[in-house]
Design a protein that fits this description.
Blueprint (H helix, E strand, L loop, with lengths): L1 H17 L2 E16 L6 E9 L4 E6 L6 E15 L4 E25 L2 E30 L2 E25 L3 E8 L6 E13 L2 E10 L16 E12 L2
Length: 242
């Protein structure tokens, strides 16, 4: 009897530990990105130059850091520890193909010493491919058969490529396109991220928002200080492998 009484406290201590388990989660969905700050614009113009070697024009957007939302997609893989009292500890590795958007209303064409301004239509996109590591703490709220996981924590994104692409028309309907490498200014972005997943069984709906702190225009020289910070909303599906 004495041994049984001694085992009771040990069993009470061990039960919460037995309730802990690890989950493996896949996620995929759409992303909507933009830049915010005094260096961003909803509308910009294209600088276009005639190249005699190719017999065609080539251009770039004057300010590609658009404050309009552009659509992309996101993939991710998560390891999540569910602890006592439904506390959560998670590590997430994600791939983002994100785009911000800028409307184009003018094109400035340069051919030799002649510069001509045209009204233009179309959009320019700043496309960023990146890998992001998200480390977070949170909690699971249970309303059987539904559950809600809420996480918050730091995210570090490493840019694989940053490229501006755009297309539209100018003048009397002539096509214009841009395809310009914009990498090299900002290799990493430290962010704060909030993440929520609503579960029913193994399937879930996932939403997250990343608030970037790195200034994408920090490497520019001359003129007043300009700031452009990335913001990304992700909406998608999640599935628990176990």
């Amino acid at each position: 009897m004495k041994k049984l009484l001694l085992l009771l406290p040990a069993a009470a201590w061990a039960l919460p530990a037995l309730a802990q388990h690890t989950e493996l989660i896949d996620r995929a969905g759409a992303s909507f990105s933009q830049y915010r700050g005094n260096g961003t614009e909803t509308t910009s113009f294209v600088n276009y130059n005639y190249e005699a070697s190719t017999g065609s024009g080539r251009g770039y957007t004057n300010n590609p850091y658009g404050s309009r939302l552009g659509a992309g997609f996101a993939l991710g893989w998560r390891v999540q520890r569910v602890g006592r009292h439904r506390g959560l500890l998670a590590a997430d590795l994600g791939y983002d193909w994100a785009r911000s958007r800028t409307a184009i209303d003018a094109l400035y064409y340069s051919a030799g010493y002649v510069n001509t301004a045209y009204a233009a239509t179309g959009s320019a996109y700043l496309r960023t491919q990146s890998l992001a590591v998200f480390l977070s703490l949170g909690r699971r709220f249970q309303w059987s058969p539904l559950a809600l996981d809420v996480l918050v924590g730091p995210e570090l994104a490493g840019n694989l490529s940053v490229r501006e692409t755009g297309r539209g028309t100018y003048g009397s309907g002539t096509d214009w396109t841009t395809n310009t490498d914009r990498g090299g200014h900002q290799a990493f972005d430290a962010r704060l991220r909030a993440d929520a997943t609503a579960w029913r069984g193994r399937a879930g709906l996932n939403a997250s928002y990343s608030y970037g702190f790195a200034n994408a225009e920090a490497g520019l020289v001359g003129g007043p200080v300009r700031e452009a910070h990335a913001r990304t909303l992700r909406l998608g599906l999640a599935y628990r492998l176990r």
